[in-house]
Amino acid sequence: MRIAVASGKGGTGKTTVATNLAHVASLDDRTVAYVDCDVEEPNGHLFLKPEWLVSRPVTRLIPKVDEAKCTHCGLCSQICQYSAIVPLGVTVLVYAEMCHACGGCALVCPAGAITETTRQIGVLDMGWSGNVQFNRGLLNIGEAMSPPLIRQTKSAPPKVDLTIIDAPPGTSCPAIESIRGSDFVLMVTEPTPFGLNDLRIAVDMVRALRLRMGVVINRAGSGDGQTADYCRANRLEILAEIPDDRRIAEAYSRGELICTALPEYQTAFEALLTRILRSESRNPNATSTGGYRR
Ligand code: SF4
Ligand code: SF4
Fold first, then answer.
1. Of 85, 95, 108, 119, which is best to mutate to test ligand 2, by the most ligand atoms within 8 angstroms of its C-beta?
2. What integer is the mean pLDDT of 154-164?
3. 106 lines ligand 1 (CB under 6 A)
4. Other C-beta atoms lying within 10 Å of the C-beta of residue 111
5. Ligand 1: distance of its center to the CA of 108 in Å?
6. Which of 9, 107, 193, 209 has the highest CB neighbour count under 10 A?
7. Count of C-beta atoms within a 10 Å radius of residue 38
8. pLDDT at position 283
9. Each residue of 242-278: pLDDT tens digit?
10. Can you tell me which atom of ligand 2 is nearest the CA of 116?
């Protein structure tokens, strides 16, 4: 089972929920992987403190032009939807950061002047945090295209009973790539007007992807009741409310898991996990073998 922990905006406590869920899940007799797909600024390692075992470069393909063969016909630039390749005078400029590696320019080049080469966009780090397999992608600074790295980070862990995906905040391509294919999306939000606005957008995204979801309200009690009202009106199950407890913020600032710094919260995260698993067991698409019909 894959649980994606997502949020419409940054700073809602998504990583706090994801890392503590991975921790409590690993206390039972199951294999667990935590996958940090927030590749622009992964921070799950600050709390799970993995021992790194492997780090490998992640690359993607970009076009390479042999100017001796180029006839400057301009077809490559016409087919490119991202303005990533532009014939200019006697040369052809390739803007690697904008290229989506579709291969279209190489296909249409009548002179056979375009081949593909690799470009490193980041690294994939793998290790262990206790019984949790820990995987994270780390995007190179200045690199704009994170989905290829997210795809490779998601596919890195071997098969386990439960995978917790820490998705990037927001609703753009990186968030969609991270939650795509999940069995359940846990939306973490906060009870403020900003939180509610971004929750609405994120809920629309998850519904468009036809994924099941539930909500965690973090810092409950610090804002208003509109978020809970919205969830009820839209038949979104509120699976947990984490109180606005200063001790949680202090544990976070020290890089500690809530469950270990404040053991009374361990029961709450175990209950959250149980509710997700119970909700998923009611999924009409779940098969008796543990697989899913999509
Ligand atoms: S399609 Fe090929 S030949 Fe035409 S401009 Fe691009 S690289 Fe040159
Ligand atoms: S591979 Fe695709 S996105 Fe990249 S430059 Fe060529 S046509 Fe554009």
1. 85
2. 90
3. no
4. 15
5. 8
6. 9
7. 29
8. 60
9. 999 999 999 999 999 999 999 999 999 999 999 999 8
10. 1
